[in-house]
Amino acid sequence: MGESVNMFTALKKYADFTGRARRLEYWLFYLLNMLIQGALYILAPIFAASGSAEMAVVCYILLILWGLAIFIPALAVAVRRLHDSGRSGVFVLTILIPCVGGLIFLILMCLDSQPGPNMYGPNPKERYY
Question: pTM for this structure?
Fold first, then answer.
C-alpha cells in the first residue's frame, strides 16, 4: 500500500499539480466537497422559510466563499488524478465540452491507476523501498 489518504489529503496538497492522486484521494475529496456544499444548500432554504433571511444569505455567502476556496485544490487533485491514469492535466478541459464533457470527465476520474511509475511519478498505490 502507498501513503495514507483521507478526505483532507487534497487540501494538504492545495496547489500541487505535480505527481499522481489515487482514485480514493479524488473521491474522498469530492465527498467532502459535496457534504459541505450539500449542507449549505439544504440550510439556506430552511433558514429562508423560517423567516431568517439573514442566515440564508450567510449560507449563500459561505457557499460562494467555499466554491472560491476549493477551486484550486479541486483542479489540482483532478490534474493529479489524470496523471495517475497516464494522461496530461490538459484533459481536465474535457469538462468544458457541451453535453458530453461531464460524462467524459467522470469516466476519466474513474479510470484505474497506470501500473508502476509513469512520467508523473511512482504509482501512489504501490510502496517503493
Answer: 0.88
